[in-house]
Amino acid sequence: MPSIVKINVLTVPDEQRETLEKRFASRAGAVESSDGFEWFELLRPVEGTDRYLVYTRWRDEASFQAWMEGPMKAAHRGGGDAGGRPAPAASDSQVWSFEVVQQAAPKS
Ligand code: HEM
Predict the structure, then answer these.
(1) pLDDT at residue 42 above 60?
(2) Ligand 1 geometric centre to CA of 78 (Å)
(3) What's the pTM value of the predicted model, to 2 decimals?
(4) DSSP letter for each residue of 6-63
């Protein structure tokens, strides 16, 4: 079964970029311990888009859903949505879903 990719696409106003990156710099670091988690990258836009991508890869959809229903909530405490948390740095977000069709790594 192929891995799946879930990308959280964040629209971040220029003046919020530093705030966003700082939040990720002090992220919970919990996702690494989630069953079925394979990869995470925070991608800063350079050219072609102004949206940050939070790239995550998972063994399967069930692993991602399990993370969303549990650890994700704790990992986003600093993201700001209610009750004294800081305001969100992103003005919009949307999730893109993919299946890995092919992949390659360098020959060692
Ligand atoms: C409203 C939508 C979302 C926003 C605005 C958002 C923003 C953020 C921010 C600012 C952080 C840094 C930690 C913090 O301050 O909370 C974070 C962590 C993270 N986000 Fe999101 N996020 C959202 C939903 C998602 C979704 C749907 C995914 C999955 C594709 C995702 C993947 C991650 C991961 C993997 C981390 C690191 C968690 C860890 O270290 O354990 N986020 N997010």
Answers:
(1) yes
(2) 9
(3) 0.91
(4) EEEEEE--GGGHHHHHHHHHT----GGGSTTEEEEEEE---SS--EEEEEEEES-HHH
